[in-house]
Amino acid sequence: MLDLSRIEGGALRAERDVYELDDLVGRTMDRVRPRLGNRPVELALSAPPVEVDPVFLDEALTNALDNAIKYTPPGSAIRVSATRLSGQAHVRLSIEDAGPGVPDTAMAKIFDKFYRVPGAAAVFRSGTGVVLAVVRGLVEAMDGAVSARRSELGWLAIDIDLPAATVPLEAAIDVKP
């Protein structure tokens, strides 16, 4: 809740720089891995460097992964992938899971503050409806965008579109003290 109120109040400012996405995702995955249980994770990260705030991205990715873990039954797959969007200056980071499904009518609402998918509490532990709102706020603070769609794995795909780096990573590294 504190993160959400800071985001809404404009108190959080992204400090963006150029990073390799696979490095940032790898760090987050190392930290989240104990919570995955026996859920297999497929990583497919073939994207150019991005211009992000590493703390914001870590928190957004952690929240998206925790959401997938919460609503995906043990043994069900989770996929984290990244690709450059064709003809655009963004990289799409996707978190997909093989859970039971989100109704199509709920897809546009799941990033709204306090929104909970109808019926989900009867099957899974209920939540507050702020986790994905925080994801959206953090991503938008980095000049990115977030959306949801039906996953090829079965349930939900959360797509996080991040600004691709405009300066090659090597140049960014050479300039830093």
Question: Outline of this structure?
Answer:
With 177 residues, this protein is an alpha+beta fold. The chain is 33% helix and 23% strand. The radius of gyration is 16 Å and the shape is globular.
Strands of the widest sheet, in order across it, are: 2-4-5-7-6
Distance between the termini: 36 Å
Largest sheet: 5 strands, mixed
Total number of helical segments? 6
User: H/E element string?
Assistant: HEHEEHEEHHEEH
In total, how many beta strands?
7
Shape: globular
Binned strand content = 15-25%
Task: Based on the model shown, name its key terms.
single chain, 177 residues, alpha+beta, 5-stranded mixed β-sheet, two-stranded antiparallel sheet, 7 strands, globular
